[in-house]
């Protein structure tokens, strides 16, 4: 999909279809030319409601406000509504921006995210046909948007939405087509394309690095594990960020096998690692003046005669012993070793990990929101704020000393599950905290994306399947750090 910016008024632009985003519930605004027809069609201007007037080649979309989040999902809904039609190009006025180029960014992101479909396994494809989008910068409100500023925003939006779709594609790919070695080769070819460095550790190197808990989780799978290290190293970086992602290409639960209904969708347990890949791609393409490292633990959790067991005690890379009481709490074991490795390899100012870590996070905050944990309220708040600016939802969950006690072990240093059914997102976060070095304690935040990573019933700008959760929020955060005045 390519985008063109013009100062021409909308009626002078040649295009198959005009998209009109309407915020005024009374349809009074002068650009709503089809008030009568819209009323007849029952268009009530709800957020994301669409009404296609085929004879007029106009598509109306409702929005609750002019805020980025509303414009983004309205734009996505527009593209969803015209999938399967014969339209190839659209034009849209940007009066919704009130002189602010930020909502151009939201609109362009919405178009690209809304046009996404995953059809690798369909014999009959139904891809979005929209190839050309013309944005009219004709000035309806008092302030004009400069074309130069707007085109920078369009370019950024394209990078961010493409990175999100790149992540969605990886997550949506089936476990037998996307196993750890495949994750590593996707990382390698992406790194080559955008100019990142990429190092892949295979079992021999993982053993040398004493990543025995990760290796134990991987043991029963015919697909051998990989740890992937991507790096973006600009000259004179403003700061250094480490990202760590859970890349369980499949989570059967292991010997603590998941019930049948819970196992379906567990190809999405690689969402954290896939998000890290998407973020790294965008950081490189935007050439942000920050050094960013991405570490991904790619592992498959299976059953078999060689499987690790409840009752085992494993030794993590940092020497801590872990009593295993449930092999389905495997993500924290993989992350423990990768977090230790990442801290050994890079001295960072910020450490973020992304993981579909717990069903408890979904219970706590719902399907639409990521939960943010850590020891530093300021960093947690920063993630929440930047997530909201990017169009993602996030909320902070606090650690506490009572829950900390529930992951004590009678026979080892720590237990991989809590002794209580409640507060599971937090106890998982507190488990990870045991693998964060003291000196990094205040630099780290854990992002549980179990809720939004995989969408069963389409919502917002997301169709069924992977959403790319974590990608937009972290790119926004890194951009904010890049723009910070020293
Ligand atoms: N990958 C799952 C968590 C998950 C559940 C992600 C639902 C997305 C949707 C994780 O490895 C897991 O199985 N966690 C267990 C932990 C429990 C055994 C302490 C869970 O959440 O039930
Ligand atoms: Zn699990
Ligand atoms: Zn898992």
Relevant CATH superfamily of the largest domain? Zn peptidases
Question: By helix and strand content, what is the structural category?
Answer: alpha/beta
How does CATH name the architecture of the largest domain? 3-Layer(aba) Sandwich
Task: Give the terminus-to-terminus CA distance.
Answer: 37 Å
Number of domains: 2
Tell me, rounded to a whole number, the average pLDDT: 95
Which cofactor or ligand species appear? ligand BES, zinc ion
Strands in their spatial order, largest beta sheet: 7-8-10-9-13-17-14-15
Largest sheet: 8 strands, mixed
Describe the structure concisely.
The chain is an alpha/beta fold and 486 residues long.
Write the layout of secondary structure elements.
Blueprint lengths: L1 E5 L10 E6 L12 H7 L8 E4 L4 E5 L5 H14 L7 E5 L8 H14 L16 E5 L10 H26 L7 H15 L2 E5 L1 H6 L3 H7 L7 E7 L7 E12 L8 H4 L7 H16 L4 E11 L11 E3 L5 E3 L7 H15 L4 E6 L3 H7 L3 E6 L2 H14 L2 E4 L4 H5 L8 E2 L8 H10 L10 E5 L5 E2 L9 E2 L4 H13 L3
Parallel strand pairs: 1-6, 2-4, 2-5, 5-6, 9-10, 9-13, 12-16, 13-17, 14-15
Antiparallel strand pairs: 3-4, 7-8, 8-10, 11-12, 14-17, 18-19
The site of one zinc ion has 4 residues, from loops.
Written overview of the protein:
By secondary structure, the protein is an alpha/beta fold. The protein has two domains: 2-145, Leucine Aminopeptidase, subunit E, domain 1 (3-Layer(aba) Sandwich); 166-483, 3-Layer(aba) Sandwich (Aminopeptidase), CATH 3.40.630. It is 36% helix and 20% strand. It has 15 helices and 19 strands. The strands form four sheets. Strands 7-8-10-9-13-17-14-15 form an eight-stranded mixed sheet, sandwiched between helices. The protein has a six-stranded mixed sheet with strand order 1-6-5-2-4-3, sandwiched between helices. Strands 11-12-16 form a three-stranded mixed sheet. Helix 2 packs parallel to helix 3 (102-115) and helix 4 runs antiparallel to helix 9 (271-286). The radius of gyration is 23 Å and the shape is elongated. The structure holds ligand BES and zinc ion (2 copies). The site of one zinc ion (ZN) has 4 residues, from loops.
């Amino acid at each position: 999909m390519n985008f063109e910016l013009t100062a021409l008024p909308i009626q002078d632009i040649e295009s198959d279809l005009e998209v009109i985003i309407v915020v005024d519930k009374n349809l009074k605004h002068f650009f709503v030319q089809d008030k009568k027809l819209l009323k007849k069609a029952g268009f009530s201007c709800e957020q994301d409601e669409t009404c296609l007037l085929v004879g007029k080649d106009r598509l109306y979309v409702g929005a609750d406000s002019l805020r980025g989040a509303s414009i983004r999902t309205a734009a996505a809904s527009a593209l969803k509504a015209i999938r399967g039609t014969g339209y190839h190009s659209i034009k849209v006025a940007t009066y919704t921006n009130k002189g602010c180029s930020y909502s151009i960014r939201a609109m362009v992101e919405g178009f690209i995210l809304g046009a996404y479909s995953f059809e690798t396994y369909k014999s009959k494809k139904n891809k979005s046909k929209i190839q050309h989008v013309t944005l009219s910068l004709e000035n309806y409100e008092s302030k004009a948007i400069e074309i130069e500023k707007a085109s920078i925003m369009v370019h950024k939006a394209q990078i961010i939405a493409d990175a999100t779709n790149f992540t969605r594609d990886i997550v949506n790919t089936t476990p037998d087509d996307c196993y750890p070695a495949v994750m590593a080769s996707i990382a390698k070819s992406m790194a080559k394309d955008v100019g990142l460095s990429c190092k892949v550790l295979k079992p021999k190197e993982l053993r040398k690095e004493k990543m025995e808990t990760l290796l134990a989780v991987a043991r029963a799978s015919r697909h051998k594990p990989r740890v992937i290290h991507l790096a973006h190293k600009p000259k004179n970086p403003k700061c250094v960020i480490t990202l760590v992602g859970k890349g369980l290409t499949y989570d059967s639960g292991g010997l603590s096998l998941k019930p049948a209904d819970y196992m379906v969708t567990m190809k999405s347990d690689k969402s954290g690692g896939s998000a890290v890949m998407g973020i790294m791609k965008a950081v490189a393409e935007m050439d942000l003046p920050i050094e960013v490292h991405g570490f991904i633990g790619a592992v498959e959790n299976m059953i078999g005669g060689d499987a690790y067991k409840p009752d085992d005690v494993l030794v993590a890379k940092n020497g801590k012993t872990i009593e295993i009481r449930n092999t389905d709490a495997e993500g924290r074991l993989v992350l423990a070793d990768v977090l230790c490795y990442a801290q050994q390899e890079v001295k960072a100012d910020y450490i973020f990990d992304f993981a579909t870590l717990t069903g408890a996070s979904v219970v706590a905050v719902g399907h639409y929101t990521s939960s943010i944990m850590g020891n530093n309220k300021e960093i947690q708040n920063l993630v929440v704020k930047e997530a909201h600016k990017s169009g993602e939802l996030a909320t902070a969950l606090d650690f506490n000393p009572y829950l900390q006690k529930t992951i004590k072990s009678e026979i080892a240093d720590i237990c991989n599950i809590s002794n209580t059914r409640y507060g599971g997102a937090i106890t998982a976060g507190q488990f990870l905290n045991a693998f964060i070095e003291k000196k990094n304690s205040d630099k780290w935040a854990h992002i549980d994306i179990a809720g939004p990573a995989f969408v069963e019933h389409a919502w917002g700008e997301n169709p069924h399947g992977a959403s790319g959760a974590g990608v937009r929020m972290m790119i926004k955060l890194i951009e904010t750090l890049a723009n910070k005045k020293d």
